[in-house]
Amino acid sequence: MNIILLGPPGAGKGTQARFLEEKYGMLQLATGDMLRAAIRRAEPIGVEAKKIMDQGKLVPDQLMIKMIEVSIEHPACTRGFILDGFPRTVPQAEALDVMLASRHKKLDAVIELSVDEATLIERISGRFICAKCGAGYHDKFMPTKVPGVCDECGNKEFIRRPDDNAEVLKTRLKAFNEQTAPILPYYKGKNLLHIVDGMASMKEVQEKIESILEMAKKS
Ligand SMILES: [Zn+2]
After folding, report:
1. Which residues touch 181 (CB under 8 Å, ≥6 apart)?
2. How many whole angstroms from 164 Cα to the centroid of ligand 1?
3. What is the CATH classification number for the domain harbouring 94?
4. Domain of 182?
5. For residue 163, what pLDDT is reported?
6. Separation of CA 138 and ligand 1 centre (Å)
7. What's the per-residue H, E or C state across 157-187?
């Protein structure tokens, strides 16, 4: 099974990708991470990409496609891949289809984990951890038993991740929606698009994704 997994930060995309890797033996291809790794290891694609990026230009679609092409031919992708971070535009989506067809492969599903902004903000912005032992808490969902005192170690200092605040989250969600919006109609037109409520429980989301893959397998 070959899928694209879409979802803003906080939608649980990483968790679901790991689940799919374990259950179906698929491999997650996070293109941003792959590109950074290729540059770090000075692989031919990385060297070429760095040269272009150093000129202040965007990495061309064909280079990204090439990188994905090399990856999907790897034995670890025999049972399928989970593409994450690419495509972002219709031309990229079209180029991806052309490349996959040339390899006698195709996409089986495009799954978007949708989120409700208000719920996501409440979920993420209330998080804090103990500065000493790292125990995790949440203002609303998991407060300390005694206010201001860590349940685990009795410490009274806590850390909040600076980017856990609502404004940063809103900006990230907006960026995600703008980046993803163009390709949704493209995949909808191909009957590949499935929207799953990312705010449901982890188990419910898993079950929904499994049923989508089972359906796709039959068609
Ligand atoms: Zn503690």
Report:
1. none
2. 20
3. 3.40.50.300
4. 2-127+167-218
5. 64
6. 14
7. CEECCHHHCHHHHHHHHHHHHHHHCCHHHHH
Query: 27: CA distance to ligand 1 center in Å?
Result: 36
pLDDT band (50, 70, 90) for residue 164:
low
What's the gap in Å between 126 CA and the centre of ligand 1?
17
Structure tokens at 79: 């049972």
Q: Which residues does the annotation mark as catalytic? A: 13, 88, 127, 161, 172
Q: d(Cα 174, Cα 166) in Å, to the nearest integer?
A: 12
DSSP code, position 162: G
Q: What is the pTM assigned to this prediction? A: 0.80
pLDDT of 158 higher than 90: yes
pLDDT at residue 47 tops 70 = yes
Look at residue 91 and tell me if it is in a domain: yes
- Residue 16 lies inside a defined structural domain of this protein: yes
pLDDT attached to residue 197: 93
What total number of domains does the chain contain? 1
Torsion of CA 188, 21, 213, 2, to 10 degrees: 50
**Which of the four pLDDT bands, split at 50, 70 and 90, describes residue 116?**
confident
Domain assignment of residue 24, yes or no = yes
Angle between helices 90-102 and 61-72 (to 10 degrees): 40
| CA separation for the pair 211, 143 (Å, rounded) | 35
CA distance 106 to 96: 9
